[in-house]
């Protein structure tokens, strides 16, 4: 059951607005890649992955189709890279929240809220990944995301167990097995929320439920969702 992948730290493009460049303006390869990636995410708001072409993406950001084909092998590759970029953003947010002193239950609730709100902002990307997991490139990126989230949470569970702040003992699931189950549950709850177009009230309900389940599983006690 345990996913054994290490916690990944890939260097990929971050957030960039997909603003078309003025004609003739010099552009570096890294900026070109970032613009094209932002263009793909922009277009996912209105177009499914299989209908996106390299030329359409390039034109959206004021570039030529050849710019896309020099930078990427396919739109699917870009979707996978975008997921990895958001994973890095998710980890950075969790690191910042969990590094604060105070009640670890409240910190965990706040870290969940940070990740949840981030994925609400990138709804189209998350659903595009889920809808295209049959594509090898996107399937590999999705498994990488799941493995990374599970490894990150398992490290956290081991740290709070080691500090005597969480349930521990031979009768309990290992940190790896517990983390994998909690991440799978959280991803499923997030998917349902995003697919039904849940509003802020629905988001609060989902976060409160996930906080309760995670806190009970890790700490054996309730955690306040007020830290969201």
TrEMBL record:
It comes from the Bacteria. InterPro entries: EthR_C (IPR049397), Tet_transcr_reg_TetR-rel_C_sf (IPR036271). Residues 110-220 form the HTH-type transcriptional regulator EthR C-terminal domain. Pfam families: EthR_C. This is TetR/AcrR family transcriptional regulator. The lineage of its organism: Bacteria, Bacillati, Actinomycetota, Actinomycetes, Propionibacteriales.
């Amino acid at each position: 059951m345990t996913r054994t992948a290490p916690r990944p730290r890939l260097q990929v493009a971050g957030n960039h607005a997909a603003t078309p460049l003025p004609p003739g303006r010099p552009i570096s390869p890294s900026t070109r890649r970032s613009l094209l990636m932002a263009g793909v995410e922009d277009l996912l708001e209105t177009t499914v992955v299989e209908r996106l072409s390299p030329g359409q993406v390039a034109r959206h950001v004021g570039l030529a189709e050849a710019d896309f084909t020099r930078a990427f092998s396919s739109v699917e590759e870009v979707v996978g890279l975008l997921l990895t970029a958001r994973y890095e953003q998710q980890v950075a947010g969790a690191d910042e929240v969990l590094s604060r002193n105070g009640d670890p239950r409240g910190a965990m609730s706040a870290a969940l809220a940070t990740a949840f709100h981030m994925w609400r902002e990138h709804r189209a990307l998350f659903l595009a990944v889920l809808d295209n997991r049959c594509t090898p490139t996107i399937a590999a990126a999705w498994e990488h995301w799941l493995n990374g989230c599970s490894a990150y949470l398992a490290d956290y569970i081991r740290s709070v167990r080691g500090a005597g702040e969480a349930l521990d003992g031979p009768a309990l699931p290992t940190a790896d097995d517990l983390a994998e189950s909690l991440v799978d549950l959280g991803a499923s709850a997030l998917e349902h929320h995003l697919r039904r177009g849940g509003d802020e009230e629905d988001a609060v309900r989902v976060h409160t439920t996930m906080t309760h389940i995670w806190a009970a599983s890790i700490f054996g006690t309730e955690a306040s969702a007020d830290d969201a």
